Amino acid sequence: MQKLGGCVGECWGGFVGCLVRRKQVDANVARADGFQLAKRLSVFDLIAIGVGATIGAGVYILVGTVAKEQTGPAITISFLIAGIAAGLSALCYAELACRCPSAGSAYHYSYLCVGEGVAWLIGWSLILEYTLGGAAVARGISPNMAVFFGGQDSLPAFLSRPTILGIVVDPCAAVLVFIITGLLCTGIKESSLAQGIITTVNVVALLFIIVVGGYVGFKTQWVGYKVPGGYFPFGANGVLAGSATVFFSYVGFDAVTSTAEEVKNPQRDLPIGIGVSLFTCCVLYMLVSAVVIGLVPCSQLDPDTPIASAFASYGMNGAVYVITIGSVTALCAALIGGILPQPRILMAMARDGLLPSFFADINKRTHVPVKSTIATGIFIASLAFSMNVDQLAGMVSVGTLLAFTAVAVSVLILRYIPPDITLVTSSEFNNDVTEFNTEKEKIDETKRRKMAGWSIILVCAGVIVFASAASAKAIPTVPRVTLCGLGSGALLCGLAVLTFINQDDARLTFGETGGFLCPFVPFLPVTCILVNTYLLINLGIGTWIRVSVWLVIGVLVYVFYGRKHSLLVEAVYMPIVVGNEHEIDDIS
């Protein structure tokens, strides 16, 4: 009871104070205790991790489904729009990764800028995302290998899916997860090397599709584009709907930021790794879709195997094996990229006391969180072995979109109202206060921070109202338009205020100095928030009901464990001391 009373008394007045308390950007305390990962990753390792985690088997399937039902030949434009939308989040990630190069990715950034409650929500959602995503990818490998054995019915015993007690199990998926888990336990450099080799094979297969398919297309005069209805048979709405669908094929670049603590030069390499990997994926997606759609009219594409069927229609059955190799290696790379970040998120949450310290242990020889990695592997392997997770695939997107939204909000907070307090122990407690040249400057700064804070809240509220009303097609037109007007009005008002007030000078010294800065603030982060919130709302009620069960479990874990064991329970908050004007000039 005494410890709980300490939490209530010292965490800004109770439970709400626990939700909004923020940790320090400086992680020297944790590193001094030995919880330090090895800095062994170069920019090439980051690109391999990013491309491998992003290009899954989706490109081998989405091309046919989206082109046939939503976009027609204009699917290339949909991939471009989706790539730009993903790029907005990538730019926000790049700034925060440079400023705060520590493990945990969006969870870590949210804890620094927003608060413990949101950080827990993001971390808990990402655990769900990587677990379900990894299990779904693992179960997709054996069916893709069926082409090498003459079909599903001819698969050897070790690749087959027997039925036990009415459950279709997949031993191959579980074994593969354990193999990759063992690989990840050997070290981050070894893991990135394997990821690089597998990703290279996948990229070579995609280049084969582009080059050989392009050659055939030029010889046949691109018959796929000569269809009734032209390039935009479904109009602009179809292109935008297709963009929303293919947007999730860009998910994975955030795996790069989860390794930030293991990068040799994070200020330089992280933005390059994020940008190059996302740009590479966008170019490959656009070229592959342009070639495949040009070979065969959209209406004739097989939605399950669009690329293989397109080549087979020209009698190029040998190309099917190359395409299958690319598909299998894409799944393997995506599995590595899906398992790699989760142990680091568990480790970051355990470091902060929100999870048991078991997950924070770093192996002295390999310098990776081996215990967290093994626990992750066992959990994912169990799901992949015993459960068909296809119906739960939509839940994977929730964690990603929540993380993207939180990162964009964190950029706004960092620029306009960065933390103006620091954490000290009782022995360091003193009576220093923030110094200003005049009392008027102090009052003006307080007003500016309040105005910026309420403007960010107004923007977020406006986005939620507008996106909800725009998506609620079942409600009558008049209330729907009214709500859209109110939401957009609040959004624009908040954005206008953020545009005309000054950003906080403390952003220049928050975390690591130098590195990448997100451009077009506040417009770019606000656009990112709007896009991701709209996609979140449109995931469907069934997805949200299933996600809610996981989130309720997370709330209970936080209330009964994380809140009471957080390292911030005994923290004392003090205003940051600002020196005189000359000292500020020297820092900047």
Describe what you observe in this structure.
With 588 residues, the protein is mainly α. It is built from 24 helices and four strands. Helix 11 runs antiparallel to helix 16.
User: What is the residue-mean pLDDT, rounded to a whole number?
Assistant: 85
Silhouette: globular
Structural class: mainly alpha
Distance from N terminus to C terminus (CA atoms, Å) equals 47 Å
In sequence order, what are the helices and strands, one letter per element? HHHHHHHHHEEHHHHHHHHHHEHHHHEH
Strand fraction equals under 5%
The largest pleated sheet is described as: 2 strands, antiparallel
Number of helices, counting only DSSP H or I runs of 4 residues or more:
24
Helix content: 55-70%
Radius of gyration over C-alpha positions, nearest whole angstrom: 25 Å
- How many DSSP-defined strands? 4
Runs in which pLDDT lies below 50 for 5 or more consecutive residues are 1-12, 27-32, 425-434, 578-588
Strand order of the largest sheet: 1-2
Set down the secondary structure blueprint:
Elements: H1 2-10, H2 15-20, H3 28-32, H4 43-54, H5 58-71, H6 75-99, H7 106-113, H8 116-139, H9 141-144, E1 163-164, E2 167-168, H10 171-185, H11 188-219, H12 235-246, H13 254-257, H14 266-295, H15 306-312, H16 318-339, H17 341-351, H18 370-386, H19 393-416, E3 421-424, H20 439-471, H21 477-500, H22 523-537, H23 541-565, E4 572-575, H24 581-587
Antiparallel strand pairs: 1-2, 3-4
